[in-house]
Automatic annotation (TrEMBL):
This is SDR family oxidoreductase. InterPro entries: NAD(P)-bd_dom_sf, SDR_fam. The lineage of its organism: Bacteria, Pseudomonadati, Pseudomonadota, Betaproteobacteria, Burkholderiales.
Length: 295
C-alpha cells in the first residue's frame, strides 16, 4: 500500500548507498522525491577516485539520474537535482525550487556525506596517525552539509506547522568507534544535531530524529569484497550486513507514523525500528541492530 502518496521529500546525497536506499523506498511508498547529489549519469562527482581504486572499481557507481528513475519505477516520482551540498547558494536554490514547484516540504532526509572522499583503506589507527583531511571530509563536507540543508528547509516546515527531518548517522548506545576517532566524532555530532534541532522545532509541530543503520551493503562495500547484491551471501564476512533499503524502510515507517513527534530528538537504530513497525529487509530478514565488537 502506498502510504506516502502525497509526501514531498528531499533526500540528499542519494546517488548511491544509504541515500539511494531511502529514496527508493520512499518511491515505493508513493512519495515525490527530490534526489540530490553531485554525480550525474554522464559524469561522476570528483573526490571518489581513491575509494573507487581501493574498491577495484573502474568508475564510481550510481548517479542522481539513475536513483530518480528508480524512484519513479518503484511507483513514486523521482526528480534529480544536481546540488553540491557544501555550497549554500546551491542548497538554497534547491529548496526554493521545491517550494516553487510543490508549495511545501514534508520530509528532509539528510544524508550527504564527504567521508568517502578521504577514505584511505585504513580502518583502525590511533588519532595521532590520522591525517586532518578526515576532519575536512567528515565535518566540513559532512556535518556541515546536514546543518546547512536543515536550516534552509526548517522555515518551510515551521510555516506549515508539520514535517520531519531525518539525519542518517551511526550510533551504538554511545560505544566508541575504536580506532576511528574522526568518524566517531562526526557521527556523534550528527546525532547531537538531530537532538538540538528537535528542541527548536518541537513547538512548531516539526520532528527531528537521527536514524542509525547497521553495516550496509553499499556499492563500495560490495565491490571491496569483490561481490554484488546477488552473491553477497557467498562472502561470510558480509553475514552481518543489511541492504541500504532496510534504512529506507525505516524512514518510510517514521514518515508514515502520525505519532512520530513522540520520537523527536531520539537516535533510533534501524534494527529496533524494524521490530517496532514490523518491516523487514529486502530478503525478508529482520536484521538485528548492529553492535560494535568491544575490545
Amino acid at each position: 500500500m502506498k502510504s506516502l502518496t502525497h509526501c514531498i521529500a528531499v533526500v540528499t546525497g542519494a546517488s548511491r548507498g544509504a541515500g539511494r536506499g531511502c529514496a527508493t523506498e520512499l518511491g515505493a511508498a508513493g512519495a515525490t522525491v527530490y534526489v540530490t547529489g553531485r554525480s550525474r549519469r554522464e559524469q561522476a562527482a570528483p573526490g571518489y577516485e581513491q575509494i573507487a581504486s581501493l574498491s577495484n572499481l573502474d568508475r564510481v557507481p550510481g548517479s542522481i539520474d539513475e536513483t530518480a528513475e528508480e524512484v519513479t519505477r518503484m511507483g513514486g516520482r523521482g526528480i534529480a537535482v544536481a546540488c553540491d551540498h557544501t555550497d549554500e547558494a546551491q542548497v538554497k536554490a534547491l529548496f526554493d525550487r521545491v517550494m516553487r514547484e510543490q508549495g511545501r516540504l514534508d520530509l528532509l532526509v539528510n544524508n550527504a556525506w564527504g567521508g568517502h572522499e578521504s577514505f584511505d583503506g585504513v580502518f583502525q589507527a590511533p588519532f595521532w596517525e590520522r591525517p586532518m583531511v578526515h576532519w575536512d571530509a567528515m565535518f566540513d563536507r559532512g556535518v556541515r552539509n546536514h546543518l546547512l540543508s536543515s536550516r534552509l528547509a526548517a522555515p518551510m516546515l515551521v510555516r506549515q506547522g508539520r514535517g520531519l527531518i531525518v539525519t542518517t548517522t551511526f550510533w551504538d548506545r554511545d560505544r566508541y568507534m575504536q580506532g576511528n576517532l574522526f568518524y566517531d566524532l562526526a557521527k556523534a555530532a550528527m546525532t547531537r544535531l538531530a537532538f538540538g534541532m528537535a528542541q527548536d522545532l518541537r513547538p512548531h509541530g516539526v520532528g527531528s530524529v537521527a536514524v542509525s543503520p547497521g553495516w550496509m551493503r553499499t556499492e563500495f562495500v560490495l565491490a571491496g569484497h569483490q561481490t554484488d547484491e546477488a552473491h553477497w551471501r557467498e562472502r561470510p564476512a558480509l553475514a552481518r550486513t543489511e541492504s541500504p533499503r532496510y534504512l529506507g524502510r525505516a524512514v518510510v515507517a517514521l514518515a508514515s507514523d502520525p505519532r512520530v513527534l513522540e520520537r523527536s530528538g531520539q537516535v533510533l537504530r534501524v534494527g529496533d525500528l524494524a521490530q517496532v513497525y514490523g518491516f523487514t529487509d529486502i530478503d525478508g530478514r529482520v536484521v538485528p541492530p548492529f553492535e560494535l565488537e568491544t575490545p
